[in-house]
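Might you be able to check the backbone structure tokens below? Thank you kindly.
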Amino acid sequence: MGRPPRATRRVKKVKKSEQPADQTKATKARAVLKKGTHLKSKHKVWTTATFRRPKTLALKRTPKYERKSAAKAGTVNKYKVIQYPLVGESASKLMEDQNTLVFIVSLNSTKTDIKRTFKQRFEVDVRSVNTLIRPDGKKKAFVTLKGDQAAVDLGSKIGII
């Protein structure tokens, strides 16, 4: 005697889009398990024999606070720019022959600073200023006065002569 035939049920086929989310996750997980995690990776093709270190990403700075609270004021102290006059044979010769006074000035002062402070302190017009840095590290300025003013007169007024 055989078994009685089973009652067959018709199973409705479900499209993939209609499958529940858990079922699609399960099928994806099964595919990964079947394939395996250690797959063969592709290697980079090198075109040169020399190794060049890769350029790293330079991010823009985002400071938490300003390092300087206020900009530095560009004021020049007229008594710090011109420090003292040079007195010697060569300086006195320049004073007489070329209408030029020789001074030691601060190292960070510019020619325009020297010209401006000279005009303020001694009330004379300056034609030109030449500077050099001496071997001992001090800055020497040659201040040439305009033609109508005599350097010898100013030198005696200051107390050089």
